[in-house]
Amino acid sequence: MAPPVAGPMVLVPLMPQDGDRLVRAAVDHGVAILGRGPVAGSVAVSGSRAALFLPMLGRGVMTLASFGGCVAPDGGPS
Fold first, then answer.
1. Environment class of residue 78 by beta-carbon count within 10 Å: exposed (0-12), middle (13-18) or buried (19+)?
2. Taking Cα atoms as reference points, which of 39, 37, 40, 13 lies closest to residue 25?
3. One-character DSSP codes across 1-68
4. For the residues 23-41, what does the mean pLDDT come to?
């Protein structure tokens, strides 16, 4: 479940939060948004673990490895 050094990852909020705020924070840390993640409120991204892990954890968001195309079926943004 540890995220890769770089590549696809899933951001999973530990508490409910505004999806737009989560997406903005992720983009501010240099990631590409791939779509909604597999868990309610999660976002599939591609980027650097070093740029994401601690800043997102500080926002109450876990950065996890992406398994088997972890994008919601509609691929839409969260």
1. buried
2. 13
3. -PPPSEEEEEEEESS---HHHHHHHHHHTTPEEEEE-SSTT-EEEEEEHHHHHHHHHHTTEEEEE--S
4. 91
The rounded distance, in Å, linking the Cα atoms of 49 and 41 is 20
Contact 62, 70 (CB under 8 A): no
Domain extent listing, the chain: 6-65
Tens digits of residue pLDDT in 56-70: 999 999 999 987 655
- pTM recorded for the entire structure: 0.82
pLDDT of residue 77: 43
Q: Report residue 29 as tokens.
A: 């840390």
What's the mean pLDDT when you consider all of the chain?
A: 85
Query: In terms of CATH architecture, what is 6-65?
Result: 2-Layer Sandwich (3.30)
